[in-house]
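Cast an eye over my tokenised protein here and flag anything odd:

===
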Amino acid sequence: MSETPQNESPDSAETPDFAAMTRDIAEVPAVEVIVTVAVNLMSAAAVKLGLTEEGDEHKDLDEARKLIHALAGLLDAGVTEISSFHAAPLRDGLKSLQLAFREASFVPDEPGQGPGEKYTGPVYG
């Protein structure tokens, strides 16, 4: 016996409801979208830096550099659009990732040349 209801095609269960998704996105404030993207970038960068329980299993400094740089760019561009209530912890997290990147590098970048430092300025320990 088939698991698919008779009035549905087998593909309709896998097809996303774009109208519902658009409606859901329309209800989310821009600040929440920006903060969510920033947190996702932070989490991905932490994984690529080997800062998770698995440690070096997923470590990839090239990927981490890209993610940290993107996070810094997002925060630089979006900080005027979100309150300091949201921006301050994100900036702290970014600085922590930048410092962790410097520590994880075999040959650390010069101050001001690390990931995202184009936007944040030099990061010192």
User: Anything to note?
Assistant: The mean pLDDT is 88. DSSP finds five helices and no strands in the chain. The CA atoms of residues 32 and 82 lie 9 Å apart.
